[in-house]
């Protein structure tokens, strides 16, 4: 197990390097002179030169990348063009809001998805199974920003149950979490269903029944733990989509998270902030998947020996 | 010998690499087949028997180069099979066909029997294109299927019939040698008997040669002229069928034969129980590979690899055995070191060994 | 009656698929005398495994027991409540299955799976349960049981896993063990170990065994009585020596003639012609008639399972007064091919 974790962490190095190159290239792949783009078309020559100077845009590309990388390793992404505050300060304030949103949404997806999946599998072809699978189809098909807008329309404006914007209080948290977590819940429900159906037909489930184990225990103890193994992988990938989805959701609900920071910075051509925020999200995603791999290992003992 | 040798296998080795470590390097090998030699004469049936993991199926695949052998020489009618180029090998395959245990898995589910048979002939360029359909119908009859079934798909047949299709496909290209890899193992006895009789009839009528790979010794005794017994990648005993069954000389062959339940309640055989499981082919035991489970093993067995040779001077036919003490055991000069009667007690003695190897595995 | 631990009478189990009824077990009758081993032998599709699962009422949707009775020590099981069945399963009647590689739950240790039986049926806690689990592993001949108890199934070989399955099955000292092809997936030398183990434990615990197999060698070796099944019906029920020496049903004779033997020389195998009929082509009369070399007009009607003078049963018109064909010698090899 320890060998496995060390190996996985070592494997992260090339991945993270790749991510850093991609994020670094953002600025240079955009057509035109980055400094002009940042300063605006009509900016005076001096301002453009100042930005070039500050960002080291005159250095050779590899020097620029090297500086970017070494600074990023020290969590230094430079300063914002807009307000000269260090990028890290911007990110720090917002990162935890996005993380909270993502985690709550994951928990929401997981609880709802697992329950629906188990019910569907155990009562296969029943009314509740068919109904649940239709509902999940809707859940999958709805874009989260549209769902967000609909939720605001119904529950905030018409019913007035929840706050339409902001983050922090319970009445502000509920709607964004539903908007962001529904698609995930639907995927997890479908995945759990097929995985459970697969497991329920396994020989060891019959063994458990032949021992005199209660049906409820057969489902929750003997079947679920096995059925979770493929679901865990999906949850990990799902977390990545949640991070990406938060960009839109945060805009809809006016939440001051990383997603919104990215959008605002793109609109204001604040490249260092965009770079920093994207890098932080990418790195978070990579580490979440590391955790998923490790928990997959712990659930699935058989992988260990191979 | 006056008979013509059809296939000669010399020093065949098949090692499969095991990847591991940080960089996925080859850390070890599964020595599935480790230096075996034998020959098959034209028109005879030779069986390879042994338990799972002994290398019998690997041997069959290596001869056909379905897996490229690590080392050794395979000569078919004087041609060095392993030296052939890919296109030459494809031609050679019309002479050497294989039938698998699960015909369903080896038949294309989207092709009718006719398509499968004609395709096999087309690939090997057998007969004129116009004659192929007629030939396919003839083969259907030869293997005991109805002509009108030729336009059906594999899923429309029962297990026994599918195995007949597998045989038909092999016959379509006029092979000289058929390798039957557990070809009748999955069939019920009543159907198995039909297929065995079919194989024997085809041999008589078409002069086929069979390499029969099987674990069922009843089937093997019935169909074979000669038998090769394998254990952990090595041949432990090889000889004429009657001699092997009536006078097994290797302790493993004896244990194997004694372990088969006899379908006669009045004739329960004296059983030799082997200790524990077959060791891993990754690190096979030194010396004689069977020494960890052999009741007759001595220090010599632990260090010296026994040679496969003719030992019983009183027998004129072929009967080779790879055991240091084959004759001594037979003449009662060499006694077992422990009794092999109680299954549970025997295991306790062996227990320590197994536990230790597992622990070593875990540490790696 | 009182000598039998299990009496199965006219048991019928069907599967309902897309409006069709597939009669997997179609009127099966047999009994298991106390302390003895009954073999149920038959080829694939004969319904032998479904019979076994029916006894423990482990038939799942879309399958259903549709008729007959199962009497275990005089208690009727077909009408027993699910809660009563749970008390019986793994405690009074245990079962082991064909595939040791897949019959153990891969995510729990051997000990966890054994302890569960002790917890359900005897209310034992973790400490006592573990102690008993180790004892059971020792009983079935697993080396270093105190280490094995904490291992996962993937760490064990096929033979070891089947030993663990037996340990689980025997944990609560059942009165009846149903073994469904327990050695089919194992190599012969391991099969010999497992069959011997079951036999030894049977004597130690004094239980009865139902041995389901397709292997006539296993039957001859382990069973006292044999029920031969074909297409969901018992065609012959006999003590093991009579069955092999004096088989009555043409199907039984056909099976024995088809069997390649390793212990004696045979000239030729005499197979049974044709194939097992598909469920939708099942003949209404004797199920074996289309493949039977002796079939006559009367075979279009289903014969009953009737007791012969030596106490054994056979379901065949040849042995009745109604027989309308010529004088038959079922061992006539010329005739059967």
Automatic annotation (TrEMBL), chain A:
Domain of life of the source = Bacteria
Q: According to its UniProt record, where is this protein mainly located?
A: membrane
Kindly give the membrane topology term recorded for this protein: Multi-pass membrane protein
Query: Where does the ABC transmembrane type-1 domain start and stop, copy by copy?
Result: 95-292
- UniProt entry keywords in alphabetical sequence: Cell membrane, Ion transport, Membrane, Nickel, Nickel transport, Transmembrane, Transmembrane helix, Transport
Keyword Ion transport found? yes
Q: Name one Pfam family in it.
A: BPD_transp_1_N
Give the stretches traversing the membrane.
Answer: 12-30, 95-118, 130-152, 172-189, 227-253, 273-292
Xref: InterPro entries: BPD_transp_1_N (IPR045621), MetI-like (IPR000515), MetI-like_sf (IPR035906)
> Which compartments is it annotated to reside in?
Cell membrane
- Family in the record: Belongs to the binding-protein-dependent transport system permease family.
Its name, as the record gives it, is Peptide/nickel transport system permease protein
TrEMBL record, chain B:
Coiled-coil intervals: none
Q: Which UniProt keywords apply?
A: ATP-binding, Nucleotide-binding, Transport
What name does this protein carry? Peptide/nickel transport system ATP-binding protein/oligopeptide transport system ATP-binding protein
In this protein, which residues make up the domain named ABC transporter? Answer: 7-257
Pfam families xrefs: ABC_tran, oligo_HPY
One GO molecular-function annotation for this sequence?
ATP binding
The record's NCBIfam families line, in alphabetical order, gives: oligo_HPY (TIGR01727), PRK11308.1 (NF008453)
The family database entries (InterPro entries) matched by this protein are listed as: AAA+_ATPase, ABC_transp_ATP-bind, ABC_transporter-like_ATP-bd, ABC_transporter-like_CS, Oligopep_ABC_C, P-loop_NTPase
* Protein family (similarity comment): Belongs to the ABC transporter superfamily.
TrEMBL record, chain C:
Localization recorded for this chain is: Cell membrane
Tell me the membrane topology, using the record's own terms: Peripheral membrane protein
The family database entries (CDD domains) matched by this protein are listed as: ABC_NikE_OppD_transporters
Which key words are in the record? Answer: ATP-binding, Cell inner membrane, Cell membrane, Membrane, Nucleotide-binding, Translocase, Transport
Q: Identify the domain of life.
A: Bacteria
Any Pfam family: oligo_HPY
Q: Where is the ABC transporter domain?
A: 6-256
Checking Gene3D superfamilies in the record gives:
P-loop containing nucleotide triphosphate hydrolases (3.40.50.300)
GO MF term list: ATP binding
**NCBIfam families in UniProt:** oligo_HPY
Q: Which family does it belong to?
A: Belongs to the ABC transporter superfamily.
Which protein is depicted? Answer: Peptide/nickel transport system ATP-binding protein
């Amino acid at each position: 197990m320890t060998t496995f974790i060390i190996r996985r962490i070592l494997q992260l190095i090339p991945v993270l390097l790749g991510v850093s190159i991609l994020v670094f290239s953002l600025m240079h792949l955009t057509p035109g002179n980055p400094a002009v783009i940042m300063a605006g078309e009509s900016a005076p020559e001096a301002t453009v030169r100042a930005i070039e100077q500050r960002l080291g845009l005159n250095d050779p590309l590899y020097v620029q990348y090297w500086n970017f990388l070494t600074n990023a390793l020290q969590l230094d992404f430079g300063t914002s063009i807009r307000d000269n505050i260090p990028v890290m300060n911007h990110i720090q304030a917002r990162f935890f809001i996005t993380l909270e949103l993502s985690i709550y949404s994951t928990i929401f997806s997981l609880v709802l998805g697992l329950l629906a999946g188990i019910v569907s599998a155990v009562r296969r072809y029943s009314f509740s199974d068919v109904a649940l699978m239709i509902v999940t189809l809707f859940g999958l098909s709805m874009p989260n920003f549209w769902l967000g807008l609909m939720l605001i329309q119904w529950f905030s404006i018409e019913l007035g149950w929840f706050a339409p914007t902001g983050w922090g209080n319970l009445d502000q948290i509920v709607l964004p979490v539903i908007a962001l977590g529904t698609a995930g819940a639907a995927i997890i429900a479908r995945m759990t269903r097929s995985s459970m159906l697969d497991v329920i037909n396994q020989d060891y489930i019959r063994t458990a029944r032949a021992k005199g184990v209660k049906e409820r225990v057969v489902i929750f103890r003997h079947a679920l733990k096995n059925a979770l193994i493929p679901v865990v992988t999906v949850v990990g990938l799902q977390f990545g989509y949640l991070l990406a989805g938060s960009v839109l959701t945060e805009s809809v609900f006016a939440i001051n998270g990383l997603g919104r920071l990215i959008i605002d910075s793109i609109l204001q051509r604040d490249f260092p902030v965009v770079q920093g925020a994207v890098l932080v999200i990418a790195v978070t995603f990579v580490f979440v998947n590391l955790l998923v791999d490790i928990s997959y290992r712990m659930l699935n003992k058989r992988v260990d020996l191979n | 010998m006056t008979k013509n040798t059809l296939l000669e296998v010399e020093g065949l080795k098949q090692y499969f690499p095991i990847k591991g470590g940080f960089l996925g390097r080859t850390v070890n090998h599964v020595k599935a087949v480790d230096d075996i030699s034998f020959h098959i004469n034209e028109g005879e049936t030779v069986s390879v028997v042994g338990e799972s993991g002994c290398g019998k199926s690997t041997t069959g695949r290596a001869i056909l180069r379905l897996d490229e052998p690590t080392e050794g020489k395979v000569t078919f009618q004087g041609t060095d099979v392993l030296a052939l180029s890919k296109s030459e090998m494809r031609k050679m395959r019309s002479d050497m066909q294989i039938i698998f245990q699960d015909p369903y898995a080896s038949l294309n589910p989207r092709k009718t029997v006719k398509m499968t048979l004609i395709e096999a002939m087309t690939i090997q360029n057998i007969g004129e294109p116009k004659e192929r359909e007629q030939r396919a119908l003839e083969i259907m009859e030869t293997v005991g299927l109805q002509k009108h079934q030729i336009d059906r798909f594999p899923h429309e047949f029962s297990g026994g019939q599918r195995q007949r299709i597998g045989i038909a496909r092999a016959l379509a290209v006029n092979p000289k040698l058929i390798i039957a890899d557990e070809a009748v193992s999955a069939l019920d006895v009543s159907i198995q008997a039909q297929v065995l009789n079919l194989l024997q009839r085809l041999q008589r009528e078409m002069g086929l040669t069979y390499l029969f790979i099987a674990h069922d010794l009843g089937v093997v005794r019935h169909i074979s002229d000669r038998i090769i017994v394998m254990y952990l990648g090595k041949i432990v005993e090889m000889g004429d069928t009657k001699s092997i069954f009536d006078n097994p000389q290797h302790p493993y062959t004896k244990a194997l034969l004694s372990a088969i339940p006899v379908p006669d309640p009045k004739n329960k055989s004296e059983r030799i129980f082997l200790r524990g499981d077959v060791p891993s082919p990754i690190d096979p035991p030194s010396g004689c590979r069977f020494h960890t489970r052999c009741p007759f093993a001595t220090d010599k067995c632990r260090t010296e690899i026994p040679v496969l040779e003719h030992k019983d001077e009183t027998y004129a036919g072929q009967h080779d055995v790879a055991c240091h003490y084959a004759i001594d055991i037979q003449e009662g000069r060499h006694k077992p070191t422990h009794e092999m009667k109680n299954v549970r007690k025997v295991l306790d003695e062996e227990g320590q060994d197994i536990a230790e190897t597992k622990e070593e595995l875990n540490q790696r | 009656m009182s000598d039998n631990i299990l009496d199965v009478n006219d048991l019928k189990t069907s599967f309902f698929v897309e409006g069709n009824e597939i009669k997997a077990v179609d009127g099966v009758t047999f009994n298991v005398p106390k302390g003895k081993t009954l073999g149920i032998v038959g080829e694939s599709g004969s319904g032998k495994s479904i019979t076994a699962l029916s006894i423990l009422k482990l038939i799942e949707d879309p399958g259903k027991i549709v008729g007959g009775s199962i009497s275990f020590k005089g208690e009727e099981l077909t009408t027993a409540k699910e809660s009563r069945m749970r008390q019986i399963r793994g405690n009074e009647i245990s079962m082991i299955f064909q595939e040791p590689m897949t019959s153990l739950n891969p995510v729990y240790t051997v000990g966890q799976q054994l302890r569960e039986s002790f917890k359900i049926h005897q209310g034992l806690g973790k400490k006592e349960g573990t102690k008993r689990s180790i004892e059971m592993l020792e009983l079935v001949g697993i080396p270093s049981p105190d280490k094995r108890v904490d291992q996962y199934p993937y760490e064990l070989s096929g033979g070891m896993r089947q030993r663990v399955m037996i340990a689980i099955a025997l944990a609560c000292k059942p009165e009846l063990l149903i073994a469904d092809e327990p050695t089919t997936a194992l190599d012969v030398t391991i099969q010999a170990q497992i069959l011997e183990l079951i036999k030894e434990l049977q004597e130690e615990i004094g239980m009865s065994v139902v041995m389901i197999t397709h292997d006539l060698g296993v039957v001859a070796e382990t069973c006292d009585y044999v029920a031969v099944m074909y297409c969901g019906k018992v065609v012959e029920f006999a003590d093991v020596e009579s069955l092999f020496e004096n088989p009555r049903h043409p199907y039984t004779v056909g099976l024995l003639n088809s069997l390649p033997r390793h212990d004696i020389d045979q000239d030729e195998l005499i197979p049974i012609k044709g194939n097992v009929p598909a469920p939708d082509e099942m003949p209404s009369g004797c199920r074996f008639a289309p493949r039977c070399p002796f079939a006559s007009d009367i075979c279009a009607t289903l014969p009953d399972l009737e007791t012969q003078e030596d106490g054994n049963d056979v379901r065949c018109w040849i042995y009745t007064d109604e027989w309308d064909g010529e004088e038959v010698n079922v061992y006539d090899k010329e005739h059967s091919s």
